[in-house]
Amino acid sequence: MIRPSSKVIIKFLIVMQKHGYIGEFEYVDDHRSGKIVVELNGRLNKCGVISPRFDVGVKEIEGWTARLLPSRQFGFIVLTTSAGIMDHEEARRKNVGGKVLGNCYPDCPPRWFIVSPITKQKLKPIPSITCQSSTVVSIGSKIYIIGGFVDGHSSRRLIVLDCPSHGWRRLPEMRVPRQNAAADVINDKIYVIGGSSSNNIEDWGEVYDPKTQTWELLLPTTLDLTVQMSVVPGSLVMSGKVYDMNGLKLNLQKNICLVEIENKMCQTKVWEGVLVWYEPEDDRGWCPVDGLEGLPNRPTSPGYLTSVAHSDRGRRVTVWWESAVLHRLGPKWTKECKTEIWCAEISFERRGVGKVCGFVEWSKNVFTKDDYKTYKLPASLVTY
């Protein structure tokens, strides 16, 4: 136990919720002066020396954490016992990390919601599980959560959400732990590639059959996924997402979604708050999607577009954005503590050479929360 007269200096590994950065966080509690000093060292992409100066109990750390993070702007804390400085990937391979102390903001854990385009129906909270760095695919009315971090470590888990019943169920685990893996559904089977720290070719990928509930080995030579699914030279396309291939490693091109526009595959993304499109066979580069009246259309407009996901089997996309509710108070605008999350489904039509027009099939406020925070908006939408 720590004597009340001692000066406590403890360093933590911090994962920031908003940006996903990792850094070293030092907590100094001098009981003699009654002062608490908190510093973020700024090495946001490194795991620092996270060794406490003496043994402390988890309960004590939890108590300090509650005092340490009154603003609740950080994600979770991992107390480690490893010396030296290493990058995040090396730390993860060596299983650096002690006990995950859980969310420091218990009123704002990751949540799952169901949304339907039916009029007046909005996002409905359902029983949730943590899914950091997991991959999500869907078959029919079921959503599969693949791998990700569990208790601070990469996991082999496979969990399914049955949308009609809102029930979660565990399925047979993968052969190796994976995080941020590429995954897609081909012929009613789930293909999972990458996301493992292993350099063994046998750990490159695996296939799950929902009918038999079994996993099979997938080698790079087993199926020419690049020929079958990719429209981007040198890249792999799975579930509408584009991955750069570097040997056995995959790097996700974030916020790029593929969509079929009149029998041709094009890339879409949100760039500076605007929905843009690109055709790999064309040299025009990224062009704005015309039309889309009524949607935010520039970075300076309130609630500009933040993310895009494919929909309707790749023939449409959904766009998501946040909007702060404002009200007039005296001569200045003041933000109310309220956030609206909006969703719209977009279809496309070609209008001459180099022109694509977007049509808003439906658009609405799907969720309102009585505070103003930044949310990680959905990357997939399932309808049934």
Q: What would you say this structure looks like, in words?
A:
- The protein is mainly beta and 384 residues long.
- It has helices at 58-68, 88-93, 225-229, and strands spanning 7-15, 22-30, 35-40, 46-47, 76-78, 86-87, 100-103, 112-114, 124-126, 135-139, 142-146, 149-150, 153-154, 158-162, 167-171, 182-186, 189-193, 205-209, 214-218, 235-238, 241-246, 249-253, 256-261, 264-271, 274-278, 287-288, 290-291, 305-311, 316-329, 332-350, 356-369.
- It is globular.
- It has three domains: 7-103, no CATH class; 125-253, Neuraminidase (6 Propeller), CATH 2.120.10; 262-384, no CATH class.
- Mean pLDDT is 62; it is low at 1-62, 64-111, 113-121, 226-233 and 377-381.
- Strands 3-2-1-5-7 form a five-stranded antiparallel β-sheet, with helices on one face.
- This is (thale cress) hypothetical protein.
- Belongs to the universal ribosomal protein uS8 family.
- It comes from Arabidopsis thaliana.
